[in-house]
Amino acid sequence: MKIGIILQSKNPEHIWNTFRLAITALKAGHSVKISLMNEGVEVEDISDTEQFDISKRIQEFKDLKGVLVACETCLKIRSKSESKVCPITTMIDLVKMIDESDKVLVFG
């Protein structure tokens, strides 16, 4: 199954659980693409804690061949020209992800 996930939260627990689900889906043989939108593009600024090892989850997701992209406009609103953790994307790409996914989940 192709799973598309839109992550639009900078809440560490939301981010952590989104990546846990995505990693579990990848390990079960599904393909997963996460699109960071709104506050979600700030994942790179969230520090790891004992409870929420976000950078490790992001790296594991990418190591398992999950696709991670960040909204270009959402980054620009935050005065960023790029993401440190993934390539940037547009609304056209988001529509394509939604169209190509069997299921689309939104977190945040």
Descriptors:
single chain, 108 residues, 5 strands, 39% helix, globular, Sulphur_relay_DsrE/F-like, DsrEFH-like, DsrE family protein
Report what the structure shows.
With 108 residues, the chain is α/β, with parallel strands linked by helices. It has a single domain (2-107), classed as Hypothetical Protein Ychn, Chain: A, CATH 3.40.1260. The protein contains four helices and five strands; from the N terminus they run βαβαβαβαβ. It has helices at residues 12-27, 54-63, 72-77, 91-100; strands spanning 2-7, 31-36, 67-71, 88-89, 103-107. The protein has a five-stranded parallel sheet. The mean pLDDT is 96.
State the gist of this model.
By secondary structure, this protein is an alpha/beta fold. The chain has four helices and five strands; from the N terminus they run βαβαβαβαβ.
Strand percentage lies at 15-25%
Whole-number mean pLDDT:
96
Taken in chain order, the helices and strands follow as EHEHEHEHE
Note the main sheet. Answer: 5 strands, parallel
Put simply, the count of helices is: 4
Principal-axis shape:
globular
Protein name: DsrE family protein
Pfam family, one: DsrE
Organism: Candidatus Yanofskybacteria bacterium CG10_big_fil_rev_8_21_14_0_10_36_16
InterPro entries: DsrEFH-like (IPR027396), Sulphur_relay_DsrE/F-like (IPR003787)
